[in-house]
């Protein structure tokens, strides 16, 4: 067994691992990165980038279908070539992965260890059966993986996760998607628009990551108007059809009747779990949360063991690429500079679902605000509907609504939840305002062009300012800036 002594060992070679490695190397040359699987990021391989490629294809079809609304009538039937769709998805996906791997190739070979790491104690790791690593500091950056009920394994190769979708050579005829969260909504709607017979099922009524009941109800109806969605379905049975590459699902439909749905695949989009359960954490003195994940300081990413840090999806905080990158810089920097650790910059929360209309959330969620402030009237909600918003109607994208939350007394902007056109861009503006701790009045002093979708944000802010008793009542028709603002 080979023995290695290093200042910092980083477990994982994805977004968080690569970022932590680079940050630690700024302080010491004695750093190794340990990876048992392929190097690269979930985002580039099976996450945000390939899913957006599939969504882009679906949007192109949808735009053709919407054209008659503008008086434009495409000739002939729309032909969706599934093989060509998936060929582009995989080609571009491989291109994005290639960029990541180019960066990995630049890392010195002696800084990379191949194999799966397991703790022997707080400062010792065993890599498979070939290397013992004695590390003064360790960064856990092992990412996450899809999670689903174990009984579903009986479906064999008819059960897939989002990773599998992007290896398809052609589009299937039918798919049952379980889990109307971020992944389920994005892939379910995209596949539907690409001609796949899709039904999207959930349990408990949750739609996307939303917590505002009004916005969630709007989203639930908007999706149901386009494809079959039951966010709280009762499934009677689900079984592989003997001798066929099909799955039979029997469920109670919206009419209360037993319905049978036979599909090519069951797509499990029922959440993800941090990859910390096979690290031998029981051999450490780490304090764990209720899910078995090491507890870490939000600003330093330091765990209960001072020499161990955690970053990315493995930390069970916000499993998004930009969050993983930020956490990696903080954890890697602190592991490198230890014991003189620093609190890192934690940006305002921002998340998006690339459905149509898009869903986005900024700052504190409705649930977090009500848990913190209760229902004592300490905050108000400003609202706008995009159904009559000028620019949205011009583009025939007039679906959705936005809620913005503000604090009584201070007038400070607390957060927002929305479903609407270009929500990804609206969320960025609002997240910048949130990070700068702006008041609603400060935000209303910012420039708004006409006609743009962002004018809807101003309408919601004006509504909120009036409810906070910090500004005039809303004007029904705004004559100074045109219709639908």
Automatic annotation (TrEMBL):
Its cofactor is FAD. InterPro entries: FAD/NAD-bd_sf, FAD/NAD-binding_dom, FAD/NAD-linked_Rdtase_dimer_sf, Mn/Fe_SOD_N_sf, Pyr_nuc-diS_OxRdtase, Pyr_nucl-diS_OxRdtase_dimer. Its EC number is 1.8.1.4. NAD(+) binds at residues 179-186, 271. Residues 7-328 form the FAD/NAD(P)-binding domain. Binds 1 FAD per subunit. The active site is at 450 (proton acceptor). Pfam families: Pyr_redox_2 (PF07992), Pyr_redox_dim (PF02852). It comes from the Bacteria. This is Dihydrolipoamide dehydrogenase. It comes from Photobacterium aphoticum.
